Structure prediction request, 222 residues.
Amino acid sequence: DARVTQTPRHKVTEMGQEVTMRCQPILGHNTVFWYRQTMMQGLELLAYFRNRAPLDDSGMPKDRFSAEMPDATLATLKIQPSEPRDSAVYFCASGPRVLGELFFGEGSRLTVL
Amino acid sequence: GQNIDQPTEMTATEGAIVQINCTYQTSGFNGLFWYQQHAGEAPTFLSYNVLDGLEEKGRFSSFLSRSKGYSYLLLKELQMKDSASYLCAVADSNYQLIWGAGTKLIIKP
Prediction:
């Protein structure tokens, strides 16, 4: 049963610490997305990869966030240094084509104290 | 700017029918998606409309009018498990998904 896998599921950290979230997209999917979801903002796009190439990271605070896809089986989202306002659920999603159904991971719930 | 509007919250009764509306203003249009998200879980795909008209899938149907920038999701024979948030998303001219804030649907017995 193919699914998107995210780690960690939950993370509590202190302000200023580095946070790294990992995602394993579904094998064969060539689009990968990182989203952040809060009660106030809904789903915000942070980064978008197609065939591992970053296409859109305009929604990502560049001074502290970075997203990479070192190989087809791994996408990472890093926050350094983390701040309390980064507390949210971070979703990774992958899709088999440019336009179509997205498959979401279960999310990483981040709390920054 | 690009904008997706949907009601914040709706309440309906088990067994009834509910219609969740979504209006959009985007730079270009390459289709409209509906996703369901239960509390504490990930969004899951429900439907995709790119042409005008009604798409039916079991108890769920989705309608699109491109000229009006309007869609709705129709849920029939409501069940308690349908309590969830329903997200509307539009693919713009660059195939980027623009997401609405979601409609929280509360089902009462």
Observations:
- Chain A has a mean pLDDT of 94.
- The longest strand of chain A covers residues 42-50.
